[in-house]
Amino acid sequence: MGIDHESVVAVSKSWGLFYLIAMAAGVLVYTLWPGNRKRFTRAKTSILDKNDRPGE
Amino acid sequence: MKEFFHRKIERNAIGFVLAIVGVASIGGLVEIAPLFTIHETVEEAPDMRLYTPLELAGRNIYIREGCYACHSQMIRTLRDEVERYGPYSLAVESKYDHPMLWGSKRTGPDLARLGGKYSDAWHVAHLMNPRDVVPESVMPRYGWLKRNALRIDDLGEHLAAQRDVGVPYTDAMIENAVADARGQANPDGPEAGGVAERYGEATNVRAFDGNPGTLTEMDALVAYLQIVGQLTQAAHQETAAKEE
Amino acid sequence: MVTGLTVSERHMALFVLGALALAGLAMAVGGRGDPLAVHGYIVLAFSLGLGFVVLSALFAPEPPESRLSEYYDDPTRVGIILSLAWAVAGMFVGVWVAALLAWPELTFVDSAWASFGRLRPVHTSGVIFGFGGNALIATSFHVLQRTSRARLPDQFSPWFVLIGYNLFCLIAASGYLIGVTQSKEYAEPEWYADIWLVIVWVAYFVLYIRTLQRRKEPHIYVANWYYMAFILVVAVLHIVNNLAVPVTFGHAKSYSLFSGVQDAMTQWWYGHNAVAFFLTSGFLGMMYYYLPKRAGRPIFSYRLSIISFWGITFMYMWAGAHHLHYTALPQWVQTLGMTFSLVLLVPSWASAGNALATLNGAWHKVRDDATLRFMMVAAVFYGLSTFEGSFMAIRAVNSLSHYTDWTVGHVHAGALGWVAMITFGSLYALVPWMWKTERMYSPRLIELHFWLALAGTVVYVFAMWNSGIIQGLMWRTYNDSGTLAYSFIDSLVAMHPYYIARAFGGLLFLTGAVVCCVNVAMTIRMARHARKAEAGGDVPLYGQAGAAQAGE
């Protein structure tokens, strides 16, 4: 085996952290992006629509 | 740009799927990946032997009856556990266990150091009716084990499958699996000698259920219970070394 | 119901059932002398039986085109019934095994199938996969179509998913009784059942994606995110954890590819994420649709639901190691597992809080409507058990709680208080919509069920908290001379009253589930009578459906 345990652990620990931060940033940008507000509002109210037929 | 990217991910359900798989699996991989090199960190135990065919069959009965649901085989590195059950479990001790039987619940006591602690007769009586030996026990009776003949015709195939997943059984062990199973439970029979030859002099060769004539599931299970924690002495040695 | 399928879909069904029957026959022949043969006969009988059902309606006329302007809900209806049947069966076995721990001689027979070790996985698989899984499949088909405003793309694949999944559950549960198990907790079924589940799961995934692609809404509603994560991640977990080599293709038995510490880590990575993505993610999907729908109010914060989605999806994956504190697992993995288990509390509480905040301003509805109260209590228990979970993941706490009944209590706080409550709440909302009645047959029976379920959960959880903590303390108590104060059997004797209380709590909960079945059965009967009275009997469901959802 070319890769030894120590180096795998090191990569896991360091890049795992970067990945966590990048991921959190991405999600926050997406949810707080002002342009998305409209679609979210539509999504959360449209399920309450009483029409029970598929859309055309 | 960012806006466009998110739109695209969302519009296309496949993109969304990839996002979920990415987010979930990388987390898993980062945690799991080091485990594929973890054998480098597992202690050495040159004295470790393999399960005999009879013990392996017994282990499969232990699995079949769901014993792992109430008995752990993993002594943690806590003082009270070591004092109650014996030296704490080492990773190496379960390196041939496909699958491991560490367990998650102790409705009954831990069994990691059970091997050699009681006599065969005790185990048989206990499995027939636990309350004959321990009046307060809530363990089920396992009377059918003594009635059921052990299936041995396919033990060679079991050993071969074990070798496929990495347990170093030799060709001789696989070829003689059936004979070794019979021999281990019949100390005066002609096949007993081969067991010690292939698995070591310390191997238990006894009529485990008290009846050398027939090979029952009871023979197999008791043979297994008597070897739990006895495949290597590494744990005892480590504890002794620490005490010095 | 078969007449609702198009003629080509009926042909497809016959073809698949034929192939399945052949597979069953091959298992029966190839597995002679092995439990595999028994499963072969079960598969054979199962597919032949269904084959006759399809054959009996093979030459019926094509269903009317008008079906395409309705959602396809037949599989959801059947799924609801199957889910409740599994609930009663699984909980019954649960009460039985609980009683066995209090009175071990209650087995009556000295037969292998009736011993605790074989019955216990029937209980766990029966309630998790049978009850929970069927409820998830049934509700996901409903939510998926409504939130996408699109009909399922075809009528065959939902049946394949639902019936195929139940075949898996049947093979699993019957297997334990005849001694077929991998011993991996919550992944006990053997290799052939695992392969079958992969096939079913791929069909489920494809069906989900195809429907999402047909959606008329620009945005994918968040409930679908949770259902998708459930489908996808469970697939990954299932495949990795079940990698094994069968002894031969004529044997039910297989040997796990992993061993020792690697197997332990894989198993609990699976075990913990089965809790996350089967018992949490999927049911959160249920909550995010049925709770706002029933309350008649939009979810409090949609953004918060997205943040918690990614938080849960991301962080659960790391937390599995907390099942292995103080074991032979490397220390850094344990620490990592503990840290993420603690951080996990944030998205979990965000979800629970989001649900409760949605109800803010509708508390009068919660007071009057037991269905909504089921969902409210579920959210509370979700918050409680995720807090407890994070707490128990702390190494010092875990040293006491691990291996004891505390774990069992924690699991049941989640399983009874959260999973079962949100399911019952959702089903009570869903059943009247599905059978086009104004409401459930008896709101008072829902009320009765609610109090039985709540009392059962509280009794159960408190019994197990007590017994677990006492057990843990007794194991580590020293006397003045510095030796252990109690033998193991002392701790077992001390458990006896709590085991009786636990069985009683379980019995209450089971009684509630039976009450639910009665109520659903009567609702279905009521719907049939109403339709007969209205139309003189013989009008198919399609012609009857109103455009508005009943119950609103």
From TrEMBL, chain A:
TM region positions: 15-33
Pfam families: FixQ
InterPro entries (alphabetical): Cbb3-typ_cyt_oxidase_comp
Keyword entries, A-Z: Membrane, Transmembrane, Transmembrane helix
The protein's name: Cytochrome c oxidase cbb3-type subunit 4
Keyword Transmembrane: yes
TrEMBL record, chain B:
Domain of life: Bacteria
Lineage of origin: Bacteria, Pseudomonadati, Pseudomonadota, Alphaproteobacteria, Hyphomicrobiales
Keywords: Heme, Iron, Membrane, Metal-binding, Transmembrane, Transmembrane helix
Signal peptide interval: none
Molecular function GO labels: electron transfer activity; heme binding; metal ion binding
Residues in Cytochrome c domain copies: 53-229
Taxonomic source organism: Shinella fusca
Protein name per its UniProtKB record: Cytochrome c oxidase cbb3-type subunit 2
Positions of transmembrane segments: 12-36
InterPro entries: Cyt_c-like_dom, Cyt_c-like_dom_sf, Cyt_c_oxidase_monohaem-su/FixO
